[in-house]
Amino acid sequence: MDRIKTFIQGFDDRISEGIPKGHCVLIAGEPGAYKSSIAFSLLYNQALAEGRKSVYITLEQSRDNLAIHMKGMGFDHEKVDQLVTIVDLALIRKNLDKVGPQSWMQIFKTYAMNLKDSLDYEILVIDSMPVLSMLAEFKNPRQELFHFFEWLRDLNVTTLILGEMSASNLDYAQCGEDFLADGIIHLKMERVGDVNIQRRIRCVKMRATAHNTDYYTLIYHQGRFQATRVISE
Ligand SMILES: Nc1ncnc2c1ncn2[C@@H]1O[C@H](COP(=O)(O)OP(=O)(O)OP(=O)(O)O)[C@@H](O)[C@H]1O
Ligand SMILES: [Mg+2]
């Protein structure tokens, strides 16, 4: 089976060397848990190492804000802008505040489909699902999300869907996206002792994959993410 490596050192070998191609994978975590960074790092490294094309659709954070953050982390968009396309729907939101809920899903799908036709990208990032759900104002969220996930699978790309969690709520998603997704990667901020917070990563599920379900410490160091065994318990 063809797989998409996450390029998180020490994590790929625990998920059978990557995410199966074509999967829709939820990356869920608290504010600041590195959801966007992990997703962008995957696109950046896939572009550099494998020459893979991708599209990152941001619905809330502006393109400039995202690019500045990623450059600071060592993932310079300008180096891969021929392969990684950032679509700023936040800007469209700002300029078109009268777009109705029906049209939002249509705008999203039109961008994703037109770029598929013109670029034939292989990986899509949706940042984030709760924002898209909020804009689309689903009346029957589970049913409409089921159709949305099927639509993503028909698009014939590997999709990373960023989700939002609060520290106090253990649900990976609000409307059943966790059951609809083919995989879930959980990013967590763990309190260690009185003052320290460590970042953690865990593969909760990954269909068609023999994977480890443990938490690992997630470290960012000099432009690379690493997952290492938790030692300070
Ligand atoms: N140059 C840097 N090197 C390492 N870490 C950084 C750097 N710049 C910012 N950070 C960390 O990255 C965090 C933000 O990462 P990121 O945007 O990927 O998180 P997120 O989970 O997507 O957040 P949000 O919930 O706001 O979308 C910051 O809160 C900060 O802790
Ligand atoms: Mg983010």
Element layout with pairings:
Layout: E1 3-4, E2 8-9, E3 19-20, E4 24-29, H1 35-50, E5 54-58, H2 63-72, E6 84-88, H3 89-95, H4 101-119, E7 123-127, H5 129-136, H6 141-154, E8 158-164, H7 177-180, E9 183-192, E10 196-206, E11 215-221, E12 224-229
This protein binds adenosine-5'-triphosphate (ATP) and magnesium ion.
Provide a descriptive summary of the structure in words.
With 233 residues, the chain is an alpha/beta fold. Helices cover 33% and strands 29% of the residues. The strands form two sheets. Strands 2-12-11-10-9-4-8-7-5-6 form a ten-stranded mixed beta sheet, with helices on both faces. A hairpin with a 3-residue loop joins strand 9 (183-192) and strand 10. The termini are far apart. The mean pLDDT is 95. It binds adenosine-5'-triphosphate and magnesium ion (MG). Magnesium ion binds next to helix 1.
Q: What's the CATH topology label?
A: Rossmann fold
According to CATH, the homologous superfamily is P-loop containing nucleotide triphosphate hydrolases
Helix/strand-derived class?
alpha/beta
In DSSP terms (H or I, runs of 4 or more residues), the helix count works out at: 7
Please list the strands of the largest sheet in the order they lie side by side.
Answer: 2-12-11-10-9-4-8-7-5-6
Which molecules are bound in this entry? adenosine-5'-triphosphate, magnesium ion
